[in-house]
Amino acid sequence: NSSVDPAEVTHFNALASSWWDPHGPSRLLHLMNPLRHTFINRCLASQPASPSDRLPQFRYLDIGCGGGIFAESAARLPTTRSVTAIDPSPEVLAVAQAHAKRDPLLMSPGRLTYLNQSVEQLPLPKIESEQFDIVSLFEVLEHVTHPAPFLTSIMPHVRPGGWLVLSTIARTWTSWAVTKVVAEDVMGIVPRGTHDWAKYVNEGELREWFGRQQGWDGMKTMGVIYIPGLGWKEVPGGEGWGNYFFAVRR
């Protein structure tokens, strides 16, 4: 009962050695990373402030972490207690582990932990302290064949009051033209075969699905678009164009 597609693992294993090349096949992920933090901060800012004067200490679970672009950046934040990052691709995860060794902070016990697992292999939390404040799923959902069971398996890992935050791609003709034709076939800024348009998930579908799940609310979205030479930019109301962020609070 795994959400992992062996063909997807094979594809990303082949890209492992270039994951941390800011001008390589993962360039768009490097450029998108600041917006990931912007969106998470926006979600956290919507919650009532803690009465404590101390900085909050968040526990992250980063699913489908790849080479660790987001996981590393989250682990360096002063408000982070720990980051657990999982990925089914052994070659990519080996790259993530090797890169983390360059930063002594990331090697602090419990600060950043990489696991070569799928989310279905993670032990289910027995108590709230084993759950996570922020569960991230960046550029993963569009590589999953059956998104509903996959999301269902993730939900128990979010603590009450915590956030499930993801980014993915809407299934529209615009996204097909941009991500498949332009990005992969014409410009070559994304390796050919990275995306399967049929696996894309529309924002409305996510909103409708989570609307049927008890105990989840506060849904937030942010549409983004990649502009060559300028990078990723937020587009208000652009969730239906292509790339977008989505978050829901437990």
Number of strands: 8
Overall shape: it is: globular
End-to-end separation in angstroms reads 24 Å
Q: What Rg do the Cα atoms give?
A: 17 Å
Helix content: 25-40%
Protein name: Ubiquinone biosynthesis O-methyltransferase
GO cellular component, one term: mitochondrion
GO molecular function: 3-demethylubiquinol 3-O-methyltransferase activity; polyprenyldihydroxybenzoate methyltransferase activity
Pfam families: Methyltransf_23
Give keywords.
250 residues; alpha/beta
Write the layout of secondary structure elements.
Elements: H1 6-13, H2 27-45, E1 58-63, H3 69-75, E2 80-86, H4 90-100, E3 112-115, E4 132-138, H5 147-154, E5 158-169, H6 173-186, H7 203-211, E6 217-227, E7 231-234, E8 243-249
Parallel strand pairs: 1-2, 1-4, 2-3, 4-5
Antiparallel strand pairs: 5-8, 6-7, 6-8
Helix pairs in contact: 2-3
